Amino acid sequence: MSAQDLKTKNADTEKITINLGPIDLGQIDLLVQEGFYSNRTDLIRTAIRNQIVAHADVIRQTVTRKQLVLGLQHFSRADLETVRQAGQVLQIQVLGLGSIDADVSPELALATIESITVLGVLHASPAVKAALAGRIR
Protein backbone atom coordinates (compact mmCIF):
# COMPACT_ATOMS: atom_id res chain seq x y z
CA MET A 1 0.00 0.00 0.00
CA SER A 2 1.46 3.38 -1.02
CA ALA A 3 1.74 6.39 1.28
CA GLN A 4 -1.05 8.08 -0.71
CA ASP A 5 -3.31 5.05 -0.24
CA LEU A 6 -2.69 5.19 3.51
CA LYS A 7 -3.49 8.92 3.62
CA THR A 8 -6.73 8.34 1.72
CA LYS A 9 -7.69 5.43 3.96
CA ASN A 10 -6.95 7.41 7.13
CA ALA A 11 -8.98 10.36 5.83
CA ASP A 12 -12.01 8.06 5.63
CA THR A 13 -11.86 7.06 9.29
CA GLU A 14 -11.95 8.70 12.69
CA LYS A 15 -10.12 7.40 15.71
CA ILE A 16 -12.15 6.62 18.82
CA THR A 17 -10.99 5.44 22.22
CA ILE A 18 -12.81 2.93 24.39
CA ASN A 19 -12.08 1.52 27.81
CA LEU A 20 -12.54 -2.22 28.34
CA GLY A 21 -12.16 -4.37 31.38
CA PRO A 22 -9.38 -6.95 31.47
CA ILE A 23 -11.73 -9.89 30.98
CA ASP A 24 -13.35 -8.40 27.85
CA LEU A 25 -9.94 -7.45 26.49
CA GLY A 26 -8.60 -10.94 27.21
CA GLN A 27 -11.53 -12.54 25.40
CA ILE A 28 -10.91 -10.27 22.40
CA ASP A 29 -7.24 -11.23 22.40
CA LEU A 30 -8.20 -14.90 22.59
CA LEU A 31 -10.45 -14.58 19.52
CA VAL A 32 -7.66 -12.80 17.66
CA GLN A 33 -5.14 -15.45 18.72
CA GLU A 34 -7.50 -18.22 17.54
CA GLY A 35 -7.77 -16.56 14.12
CA PHE A 36 -11.39 -15.39 14.23
CA TYR A 37 -10.23 -11.79 13.69
CA SER A 38 -7.00 -10.34 12.34
CA ASN A 39 -6.62 -7.91 15.27
CA ARG A 40 -8.56 -6.14 18.02
CA THR A 41 -9.71 -3.39 15.67
CA ASP A 42 -11.15 -5.93 13.24
CA LEU A 43 -13.27 -7.48 16.02
CA ILE A 44 -14.46 -4.09 17.30
CA ARG A 45 -15.37 -2.83 13.80
CA THR A 46 -17.24 -6.09 13.11
CA ALA A 47 -19.15 -5.82 16.40
CA ILE A 48 -20.11 -2.21 15.67
CA ARG A 49 -21.26 -3.03 12.14
CA ASN A 50 -23.33 -5.94 13.46
CA GLN A 51 -25.07 -3.60 15.91
CA ILE A 52 -25.74 -1.05 13.16
CA VAL A 53 -27.26 -3.81 11.00
CA ALA A 54 -29.35 -5.00 13.95
CA HIS A 55 -30.77 -1.48 14.35
CA ALA A 56 -31.02 -0.67 10.62
CA ASP A 57 -34.79 -0.11 10.68
CA VAL A 58 -34.54 2.41 13.52
CA ILE A 59 -31.69 4.21 11.76
CA ARG A 60 -33.60 4.34 8.47
CA GLN A 61 -36.78 5.63 10.16
CA THR A 62 -34.88 8.28 12.11
CA VAL A 63 -32.97 9.49 9.04
CA THR A 64 -36.30 9.92 7.25
CA ARG A 65 -38.08 11.53 10.21
CA LYS A 66 -35.27 13.99 10.92
CA GLN A 67 -34.65 14.61 7.20
CA LEU A 68 -30.94 13.87 7.51
CA VAL A 69 -28.62 13.67 4.53
CA LEU A 70 -27.06 10.20 4.72
CA GLY A 71 -23.41 10.03 3.69
CA LEU A 72 -21.46 13.10 2.60
CA GLN A 73 -22.69 16.67 2.34
CA HIS A 74 -20.09 19.14 1.10
CA PHE A 75 -20.31 22.93 0.82
CA SER A 76 -17.88 24.97 -1.25
CA ARG A 77 -17.45 28.72 -1.11
CA ALA A 78 -19.34 28.94 -4.41
CA ASP A 79 -22.24 26.93 -2.95
CA LEU A 80 -22.53 29.28 0.02
CA GLU A 81 -22.13 32.39 -2.17
CA THR A 82 -25.09 31.16 -4.24
CA VAL A 83 -27.14 30.64 -1.07
CA ARG A 84 -26.27 34.18 0.11
CA GLN A 85 -27.12 35.73 -3.27
CA ALA A 86 -30.51 33.99 -3.16
CA GLY A 87 -31.14 35.47 0.30
CA GLN A 88 -31.48 32.02 1.84
CA VAL A 89 -29.99 30.28 4.85
CA LEU A 90 -29.26 26.60 5.35
CA GLN A 91 -30.27 24.19 8.06
CA ILE A 92 -27.67 21.48 7.53
CA GLN A 93 -28.45 18.00 8.88
CA VAL A 94 -26.04 15.18 8.09
CA LEU A 95 -25.52 11.62 9.25
CA GLY A 96 -21.99 10.86 8.11
CA LEU A 97 -19.59 13.57 6.98
CA GLY A 98 -20.38 17.27 6.75
CA SER A 99 -17.69 19.26 4.99
CA ILE A 100 -17.16 23.00 4.48
CA ASP A 101 -14.26 24.07 2.25
CA ALA A 102 -11.25 25.65 3.92
CA ASP A 103 -11.63 28.83 1.85
CA VAL A 104 -15.08 29.59 3.34
CA SER A 105 -14.78 32.62 5.60
CA PRO A 106 -16.42 32.70 9.03
CA GLU A 107 -18.49 35.65 7.83
CA LEU A 108 -19.85 33.70 4.84
CA ALA A 109 -20.63 30.71 7.05
CA LEU A 110 -22.50 32.90 9.55
CA ALA A 111 -24.47 34.60 6.77
CA THR A 112 -25.59 31.34 5.16
CA ILE A 113 -25.77 28.61 7.83
CA GLU A 114 -28.60 28.97 10.33
CA SER A 115 -27.94 25.64 12.04
CA ILE A 116 -25.78 22.59 11.56
CA THR A 117 -26.27 19.10 12.95
CA VAL A 118 -23.72 16.46 12.05
CA LEU A 119 -24.00 12.97 13.47
CA GLY A 120 -20.55 11.76 12.54
CA VAL A 121 -17.76 14.12 11.51
CA LEU A 122 -17.69 17.82 10.64
CA HIS A 123 -14.73 19.01 8.56
CA ALA A 124 -14.36 22.79 8.54
CA SER A 125 -11.65 25.27 9.38
CA PRO A 126 -11.16 26.05 13.06
CA ALA A 127 -12.30 29.62 12.36
CA VAL A 128 -15.56 28.49 10.77
CA LYS A 129 -16.20 25.99 13.57
CA ALA A 130 -15.61 28.74 16.13
CA ALA A 131 -17.91 31.15 14.31
CA LEU A 132 -20.67 28.54 14.06
CA ALA A 133 -20.20 27.18 17.61
CA GLY A 134 -23.56 28.52 18.78
CA ARG A 135 -25.31 27.01 15.76
CA ILE A 136 -23.77 23.54 15.89
CA ARG A 137 -26.07 21.00 17.50
Automatic annotation (TrEMBL):
A Pfam family recorded for this sequence: RHH_8
InterPro entries: Arc_rbn_hlx_hlx, RHH_8, Ribbon_hlx_hlx
GO BP terms: regulation of DNA-templated transcription
Gene3D superfamilies, per database record: Met repressor-like
Name by which UniProt lists this protein: Transcriptional regulator, contains Arc/MetJ-type RHH (Ribbon-helix-helix) DNA-binding domain
